[in-house]
Amino acid sequence: MKKEIQKERFQSEPHQPASIGQARAPVGVEVSNVFKKYGPQTVLTDISLKVEPGEIFTIMGPSGSGKSVLLRQIAGLEQPTSGTIRINGHDPHDPDTRDRFAIALVFQAGALFNSLSVYDNLALYPLEHRIGTHAQIRDRVMRALKILSLENAVNKSPAELSGGMKKRVAIARALVMEPQLLLYDEPTSELDPVMSATISEIIATLKEQYQVTSIVVSHDRELALTISNRVAILMRGELLSLTTPGELQHTDNPEIADFMHPKIDLKNPRYKTMGA
Amino acid sequence: MNRIITIFDWLGGAVIMALRAFRMLPQAPRILKRTFEHVLQGGYASLPIVSILSFFIGAVLALQAGLTLQDFGAKQLIGTLVGEALVRELGPVFVAILVAGRVASATTAELASMRVYQEVDALVTMNIPPERFLVLPRLLAVLSYMPILTMVGIVIGWIGGAVVCKYVGVIGVEPAEYFQSVSAFLTTQKMVDSLLKAEIFGFVIILIACNTGLRTKGGPREIGFAVTNSVVYSLIAILGLDYFITKALGGS
Fold first, then answer.
1. Exposed e or buried b for every residue in B124-142, given b needs 16+ CB within 10 A?
2. Which sequence ranges are marked TM in the entry (chain B) (predicted)?
């Protein structure tokens, strides 16, 4: 069964792995009535949304609103307490779904394998899944590094990289998988504004060139408003708004407006009314 | 009650992990390189410390036994005592304790860090089973180097005893006489039982180390706790299993 799925996935490249640049059908994601609880704490409450194939869908919200938790459910790393998540009709938690579709997650801190060089980090997926010869894998890795302008980092260890480079390597590693669904967890966090803009450009470029469906969890207003097709706002684990960036800028919801355009108010500081 | 559930959850997790890992045995050729790396890191790198420790265990045994047996006029039995003690008990147990301190702690630290810093999650999203990538190479490695380390430990322990017998004046047993005494009661079955014990200890130690590491949640502090727990659980398992394996092997 697994072999058949693998075969089906790579049938477009019988003699060589699909090189980076060959578009593969993007997938759609459907989240229906998802609840997630950790013990007594409810982190996600009745989340329903649909991500269309090929779009950049950004999930925004304040810290602790459940954005990354939702992304982990979509990636299949955790299962919802109730409700369903489907990727083209398949459960992301099922390993066969990961065999059927290439789903890549770019972690907030990169999650690069520290014991491996940058090259080995990128080559791991095709090597482990036996996709192509060593020469073909090398070619595939080098192309991904070139796209992210990381050729000079090929032999470096992740420990030698800056924060921005780590994120780019993590994106390159995802790119080597030729993903049909690319998930980004806070791709611009802890980066300077220029590097944040660079990462946003990369996300948009990858979507344009490879038609990959992208779900981005971010605090970054610029990223959300500039490159997203649609934006979901999550607050206290609830989906507050699902709209286009244009409409989001003119929202009449005071909570969302405050989140999007916060003003420092020294007379009535927010921390005095904030809960734990 | 919660504590009992946690214990069974932990034990069940370890068994499932081992079963999953061994189900991937047909894919072993693709992990040979990593297995060899673990043999080098865990086995080959442990040789010096195993040798030093075993030498002194043999030496101390010979010294203690020599002084006592001399009083009974039975110093020709020193070799038998040292030989038997090392083969039946001290060889596999001390090597296992060393592996628990050296390899299990390092394994847990590495896997716990990988868990905490989401490297294990990255493997899962790449559809690379952690059992194949992280657990199986370590299990195969420990199964290959434990008998060798134990054999080396036993032989060097014997040599330690011989050195004491030769050079400690009050004992004064020649190496030829000592080694004749060592081999007098030694049988192939006893050696096989000893190596079997070592294999079981090694397997359990690495299973505990991997399971503890991969179940770690939290931050750097929890990594430290995981390492401590892994070594403590391993030591308890070694000594507890030692009794039952010895009993199962008919007291040998």
1. bbbbbbbbbbbbbbbbbbb
2. 7-25, 45-67, 139-159, 226-245
Q: E strands of chain A, at which residues?
A: 29-38, 41-51, 56-60, 82-87, 103-106, 181-185, 213-218, 230-235, 238-243
Long-range CB contacts for residues B173-179, cutoff 8 Å, separation at least 24: B173/B66, B173/B75, B173/B76, B173/B78, B173/B79, B177/B76, B177/B79, B178/B78, B178/B79, B179/B79
**Which of B110, B124, B128 has the CB atom closest to A128's CB atom?**
B128
Q: Rounded to an integer, what distance in angstroms lies between the CA atom of residue A242 and that of residue A59?
A: 9
- Whether B25 is in a domain gets the answer no
Tell me the CA distances in angstroms from A25 to A76, A213, A253, B213, one per residue in order.
20, 9, 36, 38
Q: Is ipTM over 0.95? A: no
Residue B22 lies in a domain: no
Nearest chain A Cα to B118, which residue? A111
The string of pLDDT tens digits covering residues A206-237 is 888 888 999 999 988 888 889 999 999 999 99
- What is the Cα Rg of chain A in Å? 19
**Taking CB atoms and an 8 Å limit, are B117 and A129 in contact across chains?**
no
Question: Do A77 and B133 make contact, defined as CB atoms within 8 angstroms?
Answer: no
Q: So where are chain A's domains?
A: 2-272
Task: Give the count of Cβ contacts less than 8 A between chain A and B.
Answer: 49
Inter-chain touch B119–A114, beta carbons under 8 Å:
yes
Query: What is the pLDDT at residue A276?
Result: 54
Residue B182 belongs to a domain: yes
Q: Which two tokens stand for residue A229?
A: 């097709």
Q: For residues A24 and A211, what is the distance between their CA atoms, to the nearest angstrom?
A: 8
Residues of A in contact with B118 (CB under 8 A): 107, 109, 111
Q: What's the average model confidence in pLDDT over B123-138?
A: 94
B107 lies in which domain range? 47-248
> What are A109's two structure tokens?
């801190």
Domain membership flag for residue B30 = no
Q: Per-residue pLDDT tens for A66-96? A: 999 999 999 999 999 999 999 999 999 988 8
Q: pTM of the entire structure? A: 0.85
pLDDT digits (tens, 9 = 90+) for A118-170: 999 999 999 998 888 999 999 999 999 988 889 899 999 999 998 888 989 99
Please tell me which residue of chain A has the smallest CA distance to B114. A113
* Domain count of the fold of chain B: 1
What are the DSSP calls for A164-227, one per residue? Answer: HHHHHHHHHHHHHT--SEEEEESTTTT--HHHHHHHHHHHHHHHHHH--EEEEEE--HHHHHHH
Structural contact between residues A167 and A187, judged by C-beta atoms closer than 8 angstroms = yes
**Of B165, B164, B152, B199, the residue nearest B49 (C-alpha):** B152
